[in-house]
## 1
Amino acid sequence: MHTNENADPAELAKFSDLAHRWWDLDSEFRPLHQINPLRLGWIESLAPLQGKRVLDIGCGGGILADAMARQGAQVLGIDLASKALKVAQLHALEAGTQGVAYREVSAEALAAEQPASFDVVTCMEMLEHVPDPSSVVRACATLVKPGGHVFFSTINRNAKAFLFAIVGAEYVLSLLPRGTHEYAKFIKPSELAGYCRSAGLNLQHTRGMEYNPLSQHYWLSADTSVNYLLATQKT
């Protein structure tokens, strides 16, 4: 299964097994639905999507890709989890979403095929699930047009992130299935910023994302100690 791709077969299998639950708002993917308006609003504030050609890397069941298409973008969502893509395609048909398409292809393969083709590239909650995140960042830089924007979100690597993102989210609060994340694959903002600079992406903005388990409320803040987002622009 995609043995030559920058992908972990165990990770693909894990998300494929859950594919039928992507659009169940009470499922394991509930946190993604809850944070999606925050992600979308932040992207829109920095790179208005109307009329733009947008690529969503690691799109899964299409939660963000579908939302960006509804903002007037022409969106391509890519992933290597076949079942998740089928769910995304079915949802687009059932919901009548215009301007979104999906392909089973890696970021690196698409970069070789369609360099400098997209106004906006998003890669959200995906880098911590691949063997070589720097390779994905390089592919993002290749895929975006000069002057275009690339957005990332991932999880910091420190004791607080381990406590909140793994112990808290997976074992105490059961927000996510146990085993969703592996601490060693978490990425410090300084590391991701380094990958971006090496790929010719200029760091523009950094935001943190926080969660209150009592109110079940998410919000963006300046605290990047656990979940964080980076906005970059191609030179």
Note: The mean pLDDT is 94.
## 2
Amino acid sequence: MTPAFADPQSPSRPLHVVAADDLETWLAAAPPALAVWVRDNAFTAGLGEVLPLPGAGGEMGGALIGFGTGKTRARTRFGLSRAVAALPAGDWHFEGLAPDHAAEAALGWLLAQYRFDRYKPASRILPGLKCPAGVDEARILAMAAGEYLTRDLINTPAQDMGPAELEAAFLSLADRFGAATQVVTGVALERDFPMVHAVGKGSDRAPRLMSLRWGQTGPSLTLVGKGVCFDTGGLNLKPSSGMQLMKKDMGGAATVMGLALMIMQLNLPIRLRVIVPAVENSVSGRSMRPKDILHSRKGLTVEVNDTDAEGRLVLGDALTWAAEENPELLISMATLTGAARVAVGPDLAPFYTDDEAMAAALANGAVAGADPVWRLPFHDAYESVIEPGIADLDNAPGFGFAGSITAALFLRRFADHPRYMHFDIYGHTPSDAPARPKGGAGQGARALLCALPEMLGL
């Protein structure tokens, strides 16, 4: 599906935004009969609370929506988007919404309209929204379109989203915007990207590495996304409970593809490259084994102490390839560690960087994009933990602590770039939340989009 605002020329009903602290003032200015209606329906203006208002001839004349208090708004992003589920079909427009909240409200409405309907048709027609005055419509539409793509890719089960299908989606995105592409498979993959090959060789669905290039002028940005289309854990087999969400293990790839869509749709003056290693980590006689030692594109050797720590292996080769061109900014995104979820939960996207200015820019971008992130450290004192002695690096040290940090340090060895940023995302919303239905979710992409002008001097 494609996000869209309502036609600005079409008839629409008003959705009056009223904060809890302002409710009595609003009622005092309303017609007496309307004030009685609101009081009789016990409307309190809680965040996202909707009350239909009577109109002429018994039709709905509009609706009230509560804006809650400052405290509830701080706790809940996109609270006004609850109206999408509460209102009937037809077009609506906000009234009484402060300009500094309009962009988040508009984005939240579009994100709340998302439905994953590939296997089950949508049950009803959802209400539309006219883009509020003063909002950058093109930017909001690009953000929503990127998120829709990310959600669709993550939500698709692995039976229909293996390496070949992810490649097809990648090439379709490139074709849409006239980007040049390259796909490495077979003998060339085994020779030039041996860790990608080692992870994917256990599956009957062949591994591959995709690259997209777009833009002729401006600073260079390279995005690398983990595309493990399903992760059984390999010979270190996951328990059944651990496999339940593993269709989302390509969430890093889905998120960088969503961010790339945003950049290209907005025609930002950037020379963009996107790299996605696409594999399935399966069990067979061809699977890599614990204690195997892998050679990498960079020349570093890696001892495999856990075949379930495969994401950092495929990213290692991809990051090496990316860094060979020395882009002005290099970013990786991956559903990499459970340790990150333990540290910050599912709603925050932890990120790593050694560049203070980039970290500050991203913090501002997270606020602007309603896309929370949290910085974790590349803690140099843990470098020795990822050095096993028998090889240059250990893909799963038995340290027992700081699993997200040691994984990030592992990736930094391959990126070897002063302006490198890594995201250890979850890529999934565990239960329905405003504008975020249960299922696949992009994290960090909108924050980055908003931060890129400062990071790249656009």
Note: The chain is about 35% helix and 20% strand.
## 3
Amino acid sequence: MVCLHQYSTANLPHTQPGIPSASTAKSQLSALTVKASYDDGLYNRDKFPHWITISGACNTRETVLKRDGTNIVTDSSCYPTSGRWYSPYDGATWTVASDVDIDHMVPLKNAWISGANTWTTSKRSDFANDLSRPQLWAVTDNVNQAKSDQSPDQWKPSLTSFHCTYAKSWVAVKYAYGLSITSAEKSSLSSMLNTCSS
């Protein structure tokens, strides 16, 4: 793993689609259903078909790597052979695609236990490959693995300056898909939204 730590705003990735303003996110948060999560024990990642073909040879993962990176060069199968990726969760910059994971802002299992267990497979695929909302993020691989399926009351990005954007994005995705939140999750999201300047 070759990491180049750089923290200037010049390294911030392309702006994710669909991130609401803080005031909109607060309104959306207030509108979410608050209830205990329900784990029916039937979750399986395969129930969320992901990394589907988006365009030509490019799947969802490769599309996000191209979207969120800088100076990306790909081979004929769309795999990035060079480029740079800034991970907003921890402030690290990477130059090898294998060091970068595509994180689902709202993890697939978290979605399952907050309402996606009743969805069709088609809707779960839309959720897992959503490029029109702030759901997919190129981040440091082991940071993504540390987050796993945890909600914001259980895990937050180490870069506190990103907490505002993280909360706005999480809320926007849950709101768009009508997913519920727990009371602890709502409290944590509210606290993070209170760090927003706009």
Note: Residues 3-40+52-193 form one domain.
## 4
Amino acid sequence: MLSSAHLIYMSGQISEGMAYLEDRNIVHRDLAARNILVGDDLVCKVADFGLARIIRDSVYTASRNTKIPVRWTAPEAALHQRFSVKSDVWSFGVLLYEMMSRGKMPYEGSFLNKEVMTILTSGYRLACPTRCPENIYKIMMDCWAAEPSKRPSFHALHSQLDDMDCNVLVLSQRKRSQI
């Protein structure tokens, strides 16, 4: 079973991959656990670029009939078809939820997609998963800021997660040396 330390390590790699896309003005539009490839030594790669687009002026506006994964999509993208790096950041928060909940479906239960949008626009956010470190849940909540400009960049997310990963590594090495 993967520990929180493993999941932090993996999420740091995913945020680094998304920072790469951010630098190239590419919006993924379908960031979710199902679209992450995991290889040997837990090496993670962002995959499935079928919905990805190059953005101009920081936003890509999709046509109204575009199918989108509502449970992973920021409200401004789902309601107004306005996708940006910041809507990908929202999706990254949901991906973190999937990872830390060990694979739970976001907004599980009988919620229809329309109901998910209604509760999100009224301020509801997913609860902290069991065994999820508080600092990771804070990152999720930062990713789910109602105002897109208040969401962190992928570079900031990578820096935070990389720092956490290094701290976990140092602590685990200390524990081993005390044995």
Note: Helices lie at 4-23, 75-80, 85-100, 113-121, 134-143, 154-178.
